[in-house]
Amino acid sequence: DAARGVSSSSSSGLPKRWLPFPSEYGFEITDTGIERVQQKISIVLKDLDLKYRYKADTATWLGSAKENVWSRAARRRRERKVEEDEDEEDEEDKEEEEAEPALIFKIQLSPEDGSDSVVVSVRWMQGAESKVFESFCGMLKRRVSSP
To answer: pTM of the predicted model, to two decimals?
Structure first.
């Protein structure tokens, strides 16, 4: 359990810094309705170079990223790519589509009972590097929590 980050650091005896990032990350957005949070997440995901599907009836997104496409370095690479020749881009895109995704994630929204707060739950479904998931969660929380 400690290896997956399931148990708390106090019950396992291990300092928190030694435990891996958990496979599920949640945060609360206060004083806003679920519709507003849905809009914000949709805007964030549309801005990124990743694939996703949204189910409105369950307020759930299932998506994948072939690499970290939300960091500053990724944005710079994307800007450089735009400046390159279109023919070269087409060949690279075909190769990248066949590659294994670096991250497969699920985002689900749950309204808090009796308030305008919404709990955002991000689940790590697949991927080899926990740092990619951790970075994705941090970016999502920052962008969704901002006014």
So the answer is: 0.76
